[in-house]
Amino acid sequence: FMSSNVRYNNEKMRKIIVIGIMVHKHPFSIVEGEDWMWGFKYKNYEFQKVSHKTIRRDCLMIYEAKKKQLKTLLKNVSKISLTTNMRKSSYQVAKYMVIIGQFIDATWKLQKRVLSFVKVPTPRYGIDVVDVIFKCLKA
Questions:
Q1: What's the sign of the alpha-carbon dihedral 37, 40, 43, 45?
Q2: Rounded distance, CA 101 to CA 103, Å?
Q3: Backbone angles phi, psi at 123, to 5 degrees
Q4: What pLDDT shows up at residue 44?
Q5: A single GO molecular function, which one (predicted)?
Q6: Is 53 in a helix, a strand, or coil?
Q7: Does residue 1 register a pLDDT over 60?
Q8: Is it the case that residue 103 has pLDDT exceeding 90?
Q9: Distance CA 101, CA 115 (A)
């Protein structure tokens, strides 16, 4: 897990926790559970517990950085193909729309990126869906 010659860094550990939470879709509040955080403290005595607000802020910072990278990448794209897909949450009544952009990059490789994931208001008429797509692309 940790090499003896590597110095512990709490900021790196926080980033690892944030990525784990995002990848596995855990709620931010998981960091406040003693049983879950015990594993981090067990191996790393220097580990400093963090709040769900800190983890949420860290997740949003990563999201904003990735969004900025995507906008920079798309500035050099002259044409993009958009696809949409409607998803229904398994534990909610709400429906969400994912907007995916596909384009050819400078090295002639097909790239595919999620551009947006938004809740679609009910009732869902065609004009409402178009409005959601327009707002996402404008942002």
A1: negative
A2: 7
A3: -70, 155
A4: 72
A5: zinc ion binding
A6: helix
A7: no
A8: yes
A9: 6
The strand pairing partners of 87, in sequence order, are 96
CB-based contact 48:41 (threshold 8 Å): no
Q: Which CATH architecture has domain 76-138?
A: Roll (3.10)
How is residue 131 written in tokens? 């409005």
For 31-52, how does the pLDDT look when each residue is reduced to its tens digit (9 = 90+)?
Answer: 888 777 777 776 677 777 888 8
3-state secondary structure of 43: helix
Read off the tokens for 63. Answer: 């999201």
Q: Is the peptide bond before 121 cis (omega within 30 degrees of 0)?
A: no
Block residue for tokens 């690892």: 16
Q: What is the pLDDT of residue 53?
A: 92
Non-local (6+) Cβ contacts of 101 within 8 A are 74, 80, 81, 82, 112, 113, 115
Sequential DSSP letters for 88-131? E-SSSS-EEEEEEEEEE-TTS-EEEEEEEEEEEPSS--HHHHHH
Residue 106: name the closest of 74, 65, 71, 66 by CA: 74
Contact 22, 62 (CB under 8 A): yes
Residue 110 φ then ψ, to 5°: -70, 125
